[in-house]
Amino acid sequence: MVDNGADDWRIAMTYERIFFICLELLVCAIHPIPGQYIFTWTARLAFTYTTSMANADVDIILSIPMFLRLYLIARVMLLHSKLFTDASSRSIGALNKINFNTRFVMKTLMTICPGTVLLVFSISSWIIAAWTVRVCERYHDKQEVTSNFLGAMWLISITFLSIGYGDMVPHTYCGKGVCLLTGIMGAGCTALVVAVVARKLELTKAEKHVHNFMMDTQLTKRVKNTAANVLRETWLIYKHTKLVKKIDHAKVRKHQRKFLQAIHQLRGVKMEQRKLNDQANTLVDLAKTQNVMYDILSELQEKNEDLEKRIVTLETKLDSLTVSLQALPGLITQAVGQQQRDLFETHMHRFKLVAYSSEKSWTPTRRRRSPSTAPHTSSDSS
């Protein structure tokens, strides 16, 4: 509720949570009742098959289910685990969608110290099962075989290890049920021990690389030797068939047989070398694939960043081009008007110059022609 920021506690309650809360309250409520209450317990003995009746205390029925409270150990391990209390670990787990529950804590413990976890679990199971068998069998064990703790420990140990000598057996259904559960736990622990031992005996990555390198070197030498044997037998066959005057067929058959054996050995060695290469490829495939994928992703990220920069630059240029295109009609109008005004002024200036020059040239001509055109006088005629 605090993590999710819920105001009302009823929001977080579901039928499943209500069921688990009620089950936990029921488990924690089981305990021996004050006082002395006796009931008649009937059982059939194992070897004689006779009926045995005894007055047993009710506390036996109420004390055995109290071992169900051992689930609190798992809760304590979860709440006091460094993975659960460390904020950085929880943040990384939340980013990777991993729930920090009891199962995850047990997996981490089995990865870090599997031998210690299995040893503690086995010894604890032996002690609890031995005590339970002793409590179940003490009213019907006339020979006091399983009614003492050491005898019960022996019965639980041989049942846990799936040996079963048969020298002692439980008489009551309670003891038989405990032995059955012990056998099931023993089979599971045996499987876990085998898995842990197999994982411990497995070569590490560096050791596998060294082993593959050594095997590859040996196979390379064997390939060279077998190839040399093939060439040698080929030369000997040619020598005894082509370079001698009299062919010894026995020697030829002998070298032909060795030639075929050398070819068979060469094929076998190449097959072993191919298998070793396949095995080596499986070892480095994961790391190689990871490195290749990392390089590809890095290259794609760089190209994506470069593409984004180019797109931003292109958008900027497009915006500037759009602004320029929008201002182009006004600039064209202004340029055309300015050009027209300049052209008009140029023509006016030329016209003024032409007019001025024509007027200037016409006035002296008129002045020079005026005396010649005057009428002649009498003095001039005489």
Write the layout of secondary structure elements.
Elements lengths: L14 H15 L8 E7 L6 E7 L1 H5 L7 H9 L2 H4 L1 H9 L6 H11 L1 H24 L11 H12 L12 H29 L3 H38 L6 H121 L8 H4 L1
Antiparallel strand pairs: 1-2
Question: How would you describe what is shown here?
Answer:
This protein has a two-stranded antiparallel ribbon with strand order 1-2. With 382 residues, the chain is mostly helical. It is built from 12 helices and 2 strands; from the N terminus they run αββααααααααααα. The chain starts with 14 loop residues before the first helix and ends with a helix. Mean pLDDT is 83; it is low at 365-382. The longest helix is centred in the last third of the chain and has 121 residues, at 249-369. The radius of gyration is 54 Å and the shape is flat.
